[in-house]
Write a structure and sequence with these properties.
Layout (H helix, E strand, L loop, with lengths): L10 E4 L1 H8 L4 H16 L5 E2 L10 E5 L4 E7 L5 E8 L1
């Protein structure tokens, strides 16, 4: 019998500015909180709220975890396999 697998997760990528923000996070608690938020959006990219704006580019979304106090701005690739994080706030 083949093992049961859950739904496929989207890969997480970071814009250049988000990668720089990531480099500045040094607190282990902040890293843990960010990891939890990234797992949430990788499992369900639609969990965040759409941010109103220009429809010419990719639709920006915002995910906020009030408990962990993390906010991510991101967009989802056309094939829904990659989530690109554009902004990190921990």
């Amino acid at each position: 019998m083949a093992p049961q697998h859950g739904p496929r997760r989207a890969c997480i990528a970071f814009s250049d500015s988000a990668a720089k923000q990531l480099e500045n996070i040094t607190s282990e608690a902040e890293i843990h909180a960010l990891d939890r938020a990234l797992v949430v959006i990788s499992v369900d990219p639609d969990v965040g709220e759409p941010i109103p704006g220009d429809t010419a580019g990719p639709q920006l979304r915002q995910y906020t975890d009030e408990v962990e106090r993390v906010r991510l701005l991101y967009w989802i690739s056309a094939l829904r396999t990659v989530v690109v994080v554009a902004y990190i706030e921990v």
